[in-house]
Design goal:
- The complex is a heterodimer.
- Chain A is mostly helical.
- Helix content of chain A is about 65%, strand content about 0%.
- Chain A folds into 2 domains: about 60 residues; about 80 residues, no CATH class.
- The radius of gyration of chain A is 24 Å and the shape is flat.
- Chain B is an all-alpha fold.
- Chain B is globular.
- The chains are: A mainly alpha, B mainly alpha.
- Chains A and B meet through helix 1, helix 2, helix 3 and helix 4 of A and helix 8, helix 9, helix 17, helix 18 and helix 19 of B.
- Chain A: This is Tripartite tricarboxylate transporter TctB family protein.
- Chain A: Pfam families: TctB (PF07331).
Chain lengths: ~170, ~500
């Protein structure tokens, strides 16, 4: 798996973020009463320190030759190298959609959809070549997703009296 | 004495005991599953403690921590995969014993050794914490600032393979902690007129994002990248506590419990260090050192008693000074703060019954740990057969619901996802996530105390070095920094 090339990229992303925080910190009031520190002091000092340490880390990585080189591929991997990346992206995206739909669709429907799609994505991507998708298993998964979301809803709302989003139809 | 009696009344109520037992059970289940850490288990259960009284909530989380550490021995024994990092040394002898068809015997020794280690550290915690807290009452703003620096330096040094990366992670936590209304002047920083950010970044989404979401995102990648997950072929015989067989090695039990407690109490040292040190010590003390690594009971006793003794040890600096030594206690401390209780010496004077209630709850959690494992070890073995993809989806669902349920603010869910992605990459590129949480917790303490100290001294920075306790913390921090840098350099220099 490629690791260290994106190590350099991650350093750059963190550097950009720290730079942005530093730039924003210049808009904060820099005066303080009674010889104490101003509200801008900590944000400026910390973001500057992050920038400095990241630069040192990058230089050290370059000198050691670890910043831009590739790691060895995983011999035990059962899937092509792109599969984990796609799976990671799909699950992360699914989480964003889950958060977006939680209030409009209510807890039960959005959670059932999330559970079904999350397991389905991982199952489809981990499927061996030529392996077919059995309808029975899809139905089982749908039943599992629906049962779990309703059960958790009841446990949380009745058992712990925690308010979860609903669409107001039959109490769910 | 009055506080202790009041504390007993707080713990010995049927619903409190039930909740501690439930926390222990869930901790054992999560600890048994490889890839689910103790920190993650606590983070996942945090939202459930919101409506609970402090002793009940902390009892549940302590039960989870004890259970998760003990549960790590199940997969260590059956699959040769440590359920938690602290059970790495357990694999050395428990797995070979299981391969001989004696998995039940290995787990039986684990159960007793974990219980004795845990109870020993609970006794030490109850005896040592009050005098340490008493001493820490002398701390002023300068000392608290120096203590925060010390805590951050320690955790940044040990949580990451590179000191610089660990420090960057700690500073990221400190920077995020500056978001919100500034603690002294009331100025808004990085809030962008967002109401949810006015009081700062909520600790719960940060904890769940950094320790649970990031871990599942890693599991998703590992699911495809690693080899096929092996299911245990080891036959399970009767797994009942092996009292006599464990107590026969009382010297190993005693030395490992002491080592575990001491290592746990040193901020940053925890994790697998304590169990490896104990294992090594037991091997040196043994009349049959050549049997270590071949399924020898002494090896299992050493590792398991030590890693459960770590828990009580780690609670000492966390409760008395407000300095968590590693990830799981950092999350535990977050849980305490979410309850509105700040760990530190004043906790002992202001909330005596709560702190003693926590001590008693810790004893009770260890007893539950023994009983649940005694009667339910087969359940944890079955847990290993739950398909990983179902588990990943369920954990993510609990993360989202847990964060949303607290104050019905969807912004916190997005914040958690952001922390999850950040945590994933921080772990992937060896920055570590524990320093971020410590930075988040210690940031406001450090900032408000240094600003108060300078206000009192009229802007004179020498206040940090003229007070002996503050100077000591700063010197130890500097020494630790140099030692870690020297150690990193030695490790990267060939032929050293």
């Amino acid at each position: 798996m490629v690791k260290t090339r994106s190590d350099a990229l991650f350093h750059l992303v963190l550097l950009a973020l720290a730079g942005w925080f530093l730039q924003q910190a210049w808009h904060l009031p820099a005066n303080a009463a009674g010889g104490s520190l101003s509200p801008a002091f900590f944000p400026r000092a910390i973001s500057s320190a992050i920038v400095l340490l990241l630069l040192i880390s990058m230089v050290r990585g370059l000198i050691a030759g670890t910043l831009l080189t590739r790691d060895a591929t995983n011999e035990e991997a059962t899937a092509p190298a792109w599969v984990p990346v796609v799976a990671w992206g799909a699950v992360a995206l699914l989480l964003v959609f889950y958060a977006m739909l939680l209030e409009p669709l209510g807890y039960v429907i959005s959670t059932a959809l999330f559970l079904f799609l999350c397991v389905a994505i991982v199952s489809v991507l981990s499927r061996q070549r030529g392996e077919s998708i059995a309808i029975g298993r899809v139905l089982m998964l749908a039943l599992f997703a629906a049962t779990v979301s309703v059960a958790i809803f009841l446990i949380f709302s009745v058992g712990f009296e925690i308010v979860l989003p609903t669409i107001g139809v039959m109490g769910v | 004495m009055g506080d202790y009696l009041e504390a007993l009344g707080l713990v010995f109520q049927w619903h409190v005991l039930l909740v501690i037992g439930a926390g222990t059970l869930l901790g054992l289940i999560m600890g048994a599953l490889p890839g689910l850490t103790a920190a993650m288990a606590i983070a996942l259960l945090l939202p459930l403690t919101f409506g609970m009284p402090p002793v009940m909530g902390m009892g549940m989380l302590l039960g989870t921590l004890c259970g998760a550490i003990a549960g790590g021995s199940v997969s260590a024994t059956l699959l040769n995969i440590p359920g938690t990092p602290s059970s790495v040394a357990t694999t050395l002898d428990a797995f070979p014993m299981a391969r001989r068809g004696e998995a039940g015997r290995a787990l039986g020794i684990c159960i007793v050794a974990s219980f004795i280690g845990g109870i020993f550290s609970a006794v030490v915690l109850s005896l040592l914490a009050p005098p340490i807290a008493d001493f820490a009452l002398r701390f002023g703003p300068a000392e608290y600032f120096a203590l925060s620096v010390f805590g951050l330096v320690i955790i940044a040094s040990v949580s990451s393979k590179s000191l610089i990366k660990g420090l960057v992670a700690g500073l990221i936590g400190l920077l995020i902690a500056t978001v919100g209304t500034d603690p002294v002047a009331g100025v808004q920083r990085y809030t962008f007129n967002n109401l949810s950010l006015l009081t700062g970044v909520n600790l719960l989404p940060a904890l769940i994002g950094l320790f649970a979401v990031s871990q599942v995102l890693k599991d998703v990648v590992d699911y495809f990248s690693g080899g096929p997950v092996e299911h245990s072929k080891n036959k399970m015989d009767h797994a009942r506590p092996r009292w006599m067989e464990t107590l026969r090695h009382w010297k190993v039990l005693a030395s490992s419990s002491v080592i575990g407690t001491i290592v746990g109490a040193i901020p940053g040292a925890g994790g697998s260090i304590g169990s490896f040190l104990s294992y090594d010590q037991a091997k040196k003390m043994s009349k049959t050192p050549e049997k270590f690594g071949t399924g020898h009971p002494e090896g299992i006793v050493a590792s398991e008693s030590s890693n459960n003794a770590l828990v009580g040890g780690a609670l000492i600096p966390m409760l008395t000074l407000g300095i968590p030594g590693e990830a799981a206690t950092a999350v535990l401390m977050g849980g305490l703060m979410i309850q509105g209780i700040s760990p530190g010496p004043t906790l002992f004077t202001d909330n005596g019954s709560i702190i003693y209630g926590i001590f008693i709850a810790f004893f009770v959690a260890n007893i539950f740990m023994l009983l649940i494992q005694w009667f339910g070890i087969q359940l944890f073995v079955k847990v290993l057969q739950v398909p990983r993809k179902l588990l990943m989806a369920l954990i993510l669902m609990f993360c989202v619901i847990g964060v949303y349920a607290v104050d019905a603010d969807i912004f916190n869910v997005y914040l958690m996802l952001g922390f999850g992605v950040l945590g994933y990459f921080l772990n992937r590129y060896d920055f570590g996530t524990a320093p971020v949480i410590l930075g988040l917790i210690l940031g406001p303490i450090a900032e408000s105390n240094i600003r108060r100290a300078l206000l009192l001294s009229g802007g004179d920075w020498s206040v940090l070095v003229t007070r002996p306790i503050s100077l000591t913390f700063l010197l130890v921090s500097a020494a630790f920094l140099f030692f870690t840098l020297w150690q990193n350099r030695r490790q990267t220099t060939p032929h050293s």
